[in-house]
Model the fold of this input.
Amino acid sequence: MLRIVEYNSSHHQRFKEINVQWITRIHVLEEEDIRTLEDPENYVLKEGGRIFIALFNDKVVGTCGYLNFGVEGFEMIKMAVDEN
Done:
C-alpha cells in the first residue's frame, strides 16, 4: 500500500539516500543539495517549507519537498523515487 506522509526525523536517512541516488545518476551534488540533504529541518522546514514522503508497505520509496518563499510561493525541490 502506498501512503504519503509528512517528513519527520526518522525519515532523514532515506530522504538523503534516495535523493543522492537520484541526483548523482545524472548530475553532480551541489553545495545547496548537500546543505538540504544534511539538514532538511533547518534548510526546508524551519522557514515554513514542507517535505512529503512516499511510503510503500511502510518503507520510504520517494520524497518531495517545497521551499517556502513567502508571498512568492513555493519551489518544489528534492523530488525523487528510489530506483529500486
In short: The first helix runs from residue 12 to 26. The chain has three helices and four strands. The first strand starts at residue 2 and ends at 6. Residues 3 and 55 are 5 Å apart (CA to CA).
